[in-house]
Design a protein that fits this description.
Strand content: 15-25%
CATH architecture of the largest domain: 3-Layer(aba) Sandwich
Low-confidence stretches: 1-51
Distance between the termini: 92 Å
Mean pLDDT: 78
Number of domains: 2
Radius of gyration: 35 Å
CATH topology of the largest domain: D-Maltodextrin-Binding Protein, domain 2
Number of strands: 11
Order of helices and strands: HHHHEEHEHEHEEHEEHEHEEH
CATH class of the largest domain: Alpha Beta
Length: 343
């Protein structure tokens, strides 16, 4: 009876080799350690560790195939000829076939060597492409981002952000959720978006980081020729004679006896069109109302008895959550554009 107790694998020879259990409790107890089949398996494990195929060896292989001369290939790779020779031999020994025929005139690829080199070039090219994509990810020039903006900020900032980020890039995908602030914060908490940009501080922001990037002043705007447009200043009573449109319900801190007709819609393009075609007065940011796109068609109604409406703008993200590089780049573009618009 041959003993099934095995000596341990020499970790100095095969540092990453798997342990092979051959004690009496092992299912392999009827095999001898010195059995050729067992030795072959363990040796193969060690050989894979010592001579496993790597991208470096594939580069060595392609360089030798192109030069068909070890000395010249070693010079091109900036390594010694013996090191390059060992690299090629390790591939041949590991997989059991010759890649090159050694002739007096130099090296020649074997038939199987030609196929291996052809596939190696494909692998290396795909790796270079993959590595390039990873670098783009790191620079925020590739990848996907989902974020949210309130309607007014989206109308004001998204066109410029799109031009800034997508003018020279075909590897970015951005999904934008345009909703009121409370819906955006709920989406952020549910991991549906990476960050959001909102106006006015909200109460349900526990566990979130709010970065203030400035403030947006708002006012009442109407079409040219509106009955109130010629007045230097109007009262709240005058204003209450007309419907007020805005993106979300706003508390103007008015007396309970004074009530406005309100039109609430989260699409500012629709609100603008309504104000241009009727006597509805739009409550919106001064930047939006006076933008080049609106071309001075909306004029501000000066209301003397109301405090200035200044909304702080926040970029909000979850606390302890890392932003993707493309999200960071998106935020930088938003902040930069907002500062330029506010100047």
């Amino acid at each position: 009876m041959i003993s099934a107790n095995a000596e341990p694998v020499d970790k100095r020879k095969f540092p990453n080799s798997a342990s092979v259990n051959l004690n009496r409790a092992s299912p392999c107890r009827n095999f001898a350690w010195h059995c050729p089949a067992v030795q072959c398996i363990v040796t193969a494990i060690g050989m894979q560790s010592c001579y496993g195929l790597t991208l470096t060896k594939l580069r060595h292989l392609v360089a030798v195939a192109e030069a068909l001369n070890l000395t010249k290939a070693a010079e091109n790779l900036h390594i010694s000829q013996p090191a390059l020779s060992r690299s090629i031999i390790s591939i041949e020994r590991n997989y059991g076939f010759a890649l090159f025929d050694r002739r007096s005139t130099g090296l020649a690829l074997t038939s199987v060597g030609k196929r291996v080199v052809k596939d190696a070039r494909v692998v290396l090219e795909r790796f270079r492409s993959y590595e390039h994509t990873l670098r783009l990810f790191g620079a925020g020039e590739a990848g996907e981002v989902t974020f949210g903006m309130t309607p007014q900020l989206a109308s004001l900032l998204l066109p410029g952000v799109g031009i800034d980020l997508f003018g020279n890039s075909a590897k970015l995908t951005a999904r934008v959720l345009v909703r009121p602030a409370d819906i955006l914060l709920a989406a952020l908490r549910n991991d549906e978006i990476e960050f959001c940009v909102i106006a006015e501080e909200q109460s349900h922001t526990k566990g979130m980081v709010l970065n203030n990037i400035g403030q947006l002043s708002a006012g009442f705007f109407a079409r040219r020729g509106h009955p109130l447009s010629e007045h230097d200043a109007v009262s709240m009573e005058d204003l209450a004679q007309f419907t007020i449109s805005c993106a979300e319900e706003i508390d103007l801190r008015l007396p309970q006896s004074m009530k406005f007709d309100m039109l609430i819609c989260d699409n500012f393009d629709i609100l603008k069109k309504i104000s241009l075609d009727s006597d509805v007065i739009c409550l919106c940011s001064r930047l939006y109302a006076t933008s080049n796109e609106n071309g001075g068609r909306l004029v501000e109604i000066s209301v003397g008895s109301i405090d200035p409406i200044n909304n702080p703008i926040y970029i909000v993200r979850l606390e302890g959550r890392s932003l993707s590089p493309v999200a960071g780049r998106m935020i930088s573009s938003i902040v930069s554009l907002f500062i330029r618009c506010n100047c």
